[in-house]
Design brief:
alpha+beta, Rossmann fold, Immunoglobulin-like, 4-stranded antiparallel β-sheet, 560 residues, 6-stranded mixed β-sheet, single chain, 4 domains
Length: 560
């Protein structure tokens, strides 16, 4: 929507959908200007295609520009007034138009309605009419229609807008040979007719044929998207190029398409706007086109600085030759030659982007620290890293380098090893301690475990361990921070052949936490149990041998 209360957004984009609704209304039926209606005077000689010949009708223009809105809820604009005044000046002084200006607070709902009605009532068969609008508009999605937003409108109250049905009525009643609507705002291009290309040779016959046939054309600064209210020399992007083209034309005639083919590429290449210019469907267009006829009785003082006009073509050619380049030196050369050029802000942004890209490229990507995991048997063994002070924990992140790992337990021989960790590569070490042949004094006697005793999950169990049997697990991400995991027994083939069943005691939050597997299954993952979850815990395992003996293990479930 167009109503923005934030002062930071003062340089607003004119998202005006009124033009779309105008075309919708026109397409319903222009009974007053139907194809079968009267035809104006045919101009047969090129010398008669002039304002001085008396054979052309009047060239009339209604030019509306609104910067200042009465309601503070409707954000004021920056350029419409200067755009409208400059358009009116060049039309009147160079092309012989009779111009009616409606600016700012004078462009009320009532005033615009009266001027449209007056224009429709006074138009004759040979006349050419141009309507220019620069200001806010909005699109009514309920009725698929639109409004012009007059200076006295109340924000959010469509009853105070000018319904485009009123504009449709005025245009339908015009008997004019040519009608051209120029809208510096967003527009829906779905109602345009087929485009007509320029002929290979543009001569006097071309202009005579365009003038003699009836036309209904529209030229807009953008498609159905907001268009910029900012530009150059106090004008919008679209208005700046349009005014410049009208002013610098040195030919006696200038067609609408000629203007469009000059300004559209420049606007599209250097902004997010996509200008459109085509006949409008179902409005009585008969193949003609609005022709601007020069009437230079005095030299027109340009509203665009002469220095800017003189350098314009060179600047555009220079820019087009470098705009896709990835060399900052070319954009620096452009700024050196055109420090206040039209594309100078873009050039500076590109140079800054190159600098940031270079700075980013010089910073090496951060490589995650390696994590260390240590699996031990017995599970109660103590793990230390001797060459660092922090206490070890599973998944400990360490800087790349060599580490001295020690694993010890009462009643077992201590094991040590040096291991090198590399950046970005996790490491898992496995230690199986051997029992000492001679018990040490420090070995404390553990109470005999009952056959049906199971410690709480997650708590270390000081139970006899079997050095030839241990547990492992695999895990793969399952989405939503969950993992699919499988725990299984690892032992020699001979030992596996003597196992009857394996009982796994899971965390009590699992349904049926005590689960028994009696099938060896895959040789890669013998006596496997699979499940899923999001948290790690310690699994108590009871390996039941065929000879009636039992081996108790613990395995810390790990996801990585």
């Amino acid at each position: 929507m167009i109503f923005i209360d934030s002062e930071e957004d003062k340089k607003v984009k004119r998202s005006s959908f009124f033009a779309a609704a105008i075309w919708i209304a026109i397409s319903l039926a222009l009974t007053g200007v139907g194809i079968g209606g009267e035809r104006g005077i045919q101009v047969k000689k090129v010398n008669d295609l002039s304002h001085e010949s008396g054979k052309l009708g009047e060239y009339k223009a209604l030019v509306i520009g609104i910067n200042d809105y009465k309601d503070p809820k409707i954000l004021d604009l920056e350029t419409p007034i200067s755009d409208a005044k400059a358009i009116a000046k060049v039309l009147e002084e160079k092309y012989g138009f009779k111009v009616q200006l409606l600016l700012n607070r004078a462009a009320t709902r009532e005033a615009i309605y009266k001027e449209l009605r007056s224009l429709a009532a006074s138009t004759e068969l040979n006349d050419s009419v141009l309507i220019y609008f620069a200001g806010h508009g909005d699109f009514d999605r309920t009725y698929d229609d639109g409004w012009w937003i007059p200076a006295d409108a109340q924000g959010g109250n469509p009853a105070t807008y000018l319904d485009n049905v009123q504009v449709q009525k005025a245009m339908r009643s015009m008997k004019a040979r040519h009608v051209l609507l120029i809208s510096d705002s967003c527009y829906s291009g779905t109602l345009f007719g087929k485009a007509r290309s320029l002929p290979p040779v543009i001569d006097d016959k071309y202009y005579l044929s365009l003038y003699n046939e009836k036309s209904r054309w529209g030229m807009t600064s953008g498609n159905k998207t907001p268009v910029s209210d900012e530009g150059t020399a106090g004008h919008s992007v679209f208005a700046y190029q349009l005014i410049k083209e009208l002013e610098r034309n040195d030919k006696p005639f200038l067609s609408t398409q000629e203007i469009y083919t000059q300004i559209a590429p420049v606007i599209a290449n250097n902004s997010e706007q996509t200008p459109l210019c085509r006949p409008i469907v179902s409005t009585g267009d008969q193949g003609g086109e609005f022709v601007f006829v020069a009437s230079m009785k005095k030299e027109l003082k340009s509203t665009i600085p002469k220095a800017q006009q003189g350098n314009s073509d060179k600047e555009i050619l220079f820019w087009q030759s470098i705009q896709e380049s990835d060399s900052p030196s070319l954009f620096e050369a452009y700024l050196e030659r055109f420090p206040s050029g039209f594309f100078a802000p873009i050039a500076r942004e590109k140079i800054e982007a190159f600098k940031q890209k270079k700075a980013t490229a010089s910073i090496p990507p951060e490589v995650p620290k390696p994590k260390l995991f240590v699996e031990v048997e017995p599970a109660s063994a103590k793990i230390r890293i001797l060459n660092i002070s922090p206490k070890f924990y599973q998944g400990m992140e360490l800087d790349p380098g060599r580490y001295h790992v020690e694993v010890s337990s009462n009643g077992y021989e201590t094991m040590e090893m040096w291991e090198r960790l590399e950046a970005g590569k996790d490491k898992t070490l496995r230690f199986t301690l051997k029992k000492k042949t001679v018990p040490q004094k420090e070995i404390s006697q553990q109470p005999e475990m009952k056959k049906d005793y199971y410690p709480d999950p997650g708590q270390p169990a000081h139970v006899p361990e079997s050095p030839e049997i241990h547990a492992e697990n695999t895990a793969i991400p399952a989405g939503d921070k969950r993992w699919n995991w499988t725990v299984f027994i690892r032992a020699s083939r001979d030992v596996l052949s003597h196992i009857n069943c394996v009982e796994y005691t899971l965390h009590p939050t699992f349904p049926n936490p005590v689960r028994t597997v009696c099938q060896q299954g895959s040789p890669d993952q013998p006596f496997a149990l699979s499940s899923n979850g999001w948290g790690t815990f310690t699994i108590d395992i009871r390996v039941m041998m065929k000879n009636g003996q039992e081996k108790k293990l613990q395995h810390a479930l790990r996801f990585r």
